[in-house]
Specification:
By secondary structure, the chain is α+β, with helices and mostly antiparallel strands. Among the domains are: 90 residues, Nucleic acid-binding proteins (OB fold (Dihydrolipoamide Acetyltransferase, E2P)); 134 residues, Gyrase A, domain 2, CATH 3.30.1360.30. The chain is built from 16 helices and 22 strands. The strands form 5 sheets. An 8-stranded mixed sheet has the order 6-9-10-22-21-20-17-11, sandwiched between helices. A hairpin with a 2-residue loop joins β20 and β21. The longest helix has 23 residues. It is globular, with a radius of gyration of 30 Å.
């Protein structure tokens, strides 16, 4: 094993060693010079004194060094208890300055995030940011997780295959793609794949049976905190198996990964919930079930209320729904008071609702003072409390709207906000399978049907009849895996009947001509004895961040884009000279 800066301890005292690394911290004590030499594995304190001191005095931060010397114990009062090498130091007898460095634009601090530079600056100098111990740990964790997944799939007879990254554009499915002009075929374009979906299905038609890939994917979506235009997913597909087998396989994968990577034991047989129930009860198709707080309809209970806002909604056949949370009034960290609730009202308005009403349960009664808005519920208040099974210390949130879809969506988001703040978590990791998604949903802007996930998910046999008459009723053999309220995997059993596949695409408003031009090669492949097959894709970037208890996926990607999808390290995207576009690709830009 190669020696590195983090591999030594007191057992190595008196060893002669040779090390390479960067000069991280420099401390001149007059007559003695101390430098922390750092590499990927850690750091060790170097001591320079005597004849070598003059040469060492020329060393600056992040200079690249080669040193030789002898390991010795540190003085008792200089021991660093936070470091694995904190009890020893290297007394340097030989020094070679391999390369100099400009003064870094920010301190390359380790785990102590006291003086951490802002993210934009760190992204611009990502190659320096990656020298920090925190970042090294993130990248190593990602590598460890990926290795564990690979090893598991290899043990289950999966082939690791590579599908193309220059593919046919399938813009008609509704998602924006990145286009690449072809020089050899003027005025034509490739598309970067949003996923290996079609090509992994072709692998199944090919008889390769079990495929997986650590796949790079590209999606031209609107910027969002947990989204990148290029991302990585663990993609797999297998033949002659149903959704139960695939879900069981993924559960076994996570049991193995948690044991090998996190040293934690979890049990398989994850909980299942229908899509319809998840949306109705939690306002989301990825609910966090570490805390309960279901959405409950109280429309009937408040029909006789004198509260004008609710009366108006009910008169227009709208719905009134509520949630219950247990509030900790004494905790500063999770304090929920009138000021916080007023802020939550603004959130509700931003989500499209007219507002929000709340009541606290105090002394086993519904209290309107001093913490909540005064509301004339009268005896109805007790009916609400009984329907919600509210107890001492609970807070009741009440919402209403004429659009039940908008109401549930908003409540689901507010549930997550409050859950993150005051949710009483029952366990550390909560896995949940969401089953039976609708095949189609209406676009709220155009009113047209679009696939709820992708247009290649097979319909459940008993709902196949709805494809031609009432496609909104068609249910797909689609499944998502949710961990702590975050979707970490999505998959389905695929359509293998070319007629059903064509009809599914027609439901989206595609003509036969467009279908043939865009997906004709897939439909033709299905005509050559396509096996029953299905698969799933795990979002690696999101999964790594989630298992590291981080909300920022950029910390686990080598060279990520910023929140505007700009690459600060190289300045992309950049404008391309119009002459070059014309000469190389035959593309003219009208200014």
């Amino acid at each position: 094993m190669e020696l590195n800066c983090g591999s030594f301890n007191e057992k190595d005292v008196n060893k002669e060693v040779s090390l390479y690394g960067w000069a991280r911290y420099i401390r001149d004590h007059g007559g003695k010079l101390f430098i922390d030499l750092a590499d990927r594995h850690g750091y060790i304190q170097l001591v320079f004194e005597g004849e070598i001191l003059e040469k060492a005095s020329n060393i600056g931060k992040e200079y690249v060094l080669h040193v030789k010397g002898k390991i010795r114990l540190r003085d008792q009062d200089t021991i660093d208890k936070d470091s694995s090498t904190g009890k020893i130091e290297l007394f340097v007898t030989s020094l070679v300055i391999l390369n100099k460095s400009k003064v870094p634009p920010f301190e390359l601090i380790d785990e102590k995030k006291k003086f951490l530079a802002n993210e934009e600056l760190r992204l611009k100098y990502r190659y320096l940011d990656l020298r920090r111990r925190d970042m090294i740990k993130n990248i190593e964790f990602r590598d460890k997780l990926t290795k564990s997944i690979r090893k598991f799939l290899w043990s289950r007879d999966f082939l690791e295959l590579e599908t193309p990254t220059l593919v046919k554009d399938t813009y008609e499915t509704g998602s924006r793609t990145f286009l690449v002009p072809s020089r050899t075929n003027p005025e034509t374009f490739y598309s970067l794949p949003q996923s290996p979906q079609i090509y992994k299905q072709l692998c199944m038609v090919s008889g390769l049976e079990r495929y997986f890939q650590v796949a790079r994917c590209y999606r031209d979506e609107d910027p969002r905190e947990d989204r990148q235009p290029e991302f990585t997913q663990i993609d797999l597909e297998l033949s002659f198996k149903d959704e139960k087998y695939i879900q069981s396989l993924i559960e076994d994968l996570f049991v193995t990964v948690f044991n090998e990577v996190l040293n934690k034991k979890i049990k398989a047989n994850f909980r299942h919930m229908l899509y319809k129930d998840a949306v109705e009860q939690y306002g989301s198709d990825k609910p966090d079930l570490r805390f309960d707080s279901k959405i409950i309809d109280i429309t009937e209970e408040v029909k006789l209320s004198n509260y004008n806002m609710l009366k108006r909604v009910i008169s227009m056949n709208g719905k009134v729904k509520a949630m219950v949370f247990n509030a900790d009034f004494n905790s500063e960290k999770s304090k929920v008071d009138k000021n916080y609730m007023l802020k939550l009202i603004e959130v509700a308005k931003e989500l499209g609702l007219g507002g929000m009403t709340w009541l606290f349960v105090a002394s086993n009664k519904l209290s309107s003072e001093p913490e909540s808005i005064v509301i004339s519920f009268g005896s109805i208040a007790e009916k609400i409390k009984e329907k919600l099974n509210a107890k001492e210390g609970d807070i009741i949130l009440i919402f209403s709207d004429v659009s039940e879809k908008l109401l549930l969506n908003a409540m689901g988001k507010i549930r997550k906000i409050l859950g993150d703040k005051i949710g009483k978590y029952s366990d550390e990791y909560n896995f949940l399978w969401i089953d039976e998604f609708p095949m189609f949903e209406k676009d709220e802007v155009t009113g047209k049907l679009k696939p709820a996930h992708n247009p290649f998910s097979a319909p459940k046999e008993e709902t196949l009849k709805y494809l031609d008459t009432a496609p909104e009723k068609a249910v797909a053999r689609q499944y998502d895996l949710v961990l702590n309220g975050v979707e970490i995997a999505s998959g389905s059993i695929r359509i293998i009947d070319p007629v059903v596949q064509r009809n599914s695409l027609k439901m989206m408003g595609m003509s036969d001509k467009t279908i043939d031009e865009t997906f004709g090669f897939l439909i033709e492949a299905l005509e050559y004895g396509a096996p029953i097959h299905g698969g799933i894709a795990l979002g690696l970037d999101r999964l790594v961040a989630l298992l590291s208890n981080s909300e920022n996926i950029r910390d686990f990607i080598l060279f990520p884009k910023n929140k505007k999808f700009e690459s600060l390290i190289d300045g992309s995207p950049t404008k391309i000279n119009s002459k070059r576009l014309k000469d190389d690709f035959g593309i003219s830009i009208n200014k």
